[in-house]
Amino acid sequence: MASDPSAQADPADSAIDSVGVLSEDSRRRMFAFIRRARRAVTRDEAAASVGISRKLAAFHLDKLVDAGLLRARYETPGGTRKVGRQPKVYEPTDTQITVNIPDRRHELLADLLLDAVLTEQADENAAQAAMRAAQQRGRRLGEAARNETRPGRLGPERGLTACERLLDRYGYEPVRETPTRLRLRNCPFHPLAAKAPDLVCGMNQAFLSGYLDGLEVNGVRAALAPEPGECCVRLGSGDSESADDTPQGR
Known about the structure:
The protein is α+β, with helices and mostly antiparallel strands. It has helices at about 10-20, 25-35, 45-50, 55-65, 105-120, 125-150, 155-170, 190-195, 195-215; strands at about 40, 70-75, 90, 175-180, 180-185, 220-225, 235.
């Protein structure tokens, strides 16, 4: 299984930065020209494509390289070797730009469902396989976080603090209601959760429960506690919840 797509830089921040870089008209048009070219493009070619000077084109191209949208190298176009320094050429990277506000993680949900389909066992149905896949992914992420940070024993308060990094990264928008309870203000799987709430909310709960297990957080559980416009799961210690906290209909 490939490493988690959100384990490096925050994808939302990176996407917003990339969109900002592309807000300049000449830069955006050069980027589109280079993508369509399907080959390495020189500064002169890029400049000519939008009718600006080579020097100004170099400035914009370097901005696109810094944003991770292009990569640059020195190469003679066409592969013909000539005397002197080879020109700098540019080509697109594989970076995909997606901006969602609030944050959505449909690719995670799709990846978990693909895992479930590929590993479904004879004694489980599709929904059970999905819950298992989600729980296992969450546990692996929790174990990786524990190995990286080595936090020692985690009770409810420190455990919830340790969870907030992952929750922020995945777009849950965690809010500390009490020292031992986190409310998740955003559903990363909306609007798909509304189409199949039993499946998607169940996978969400299994994913977060697995993360708590892998991180070895004591005294905290991921409980279904749906609220309009928010995530269906709340993280808290058992004794921090009362009958008044339980949503109607549960």
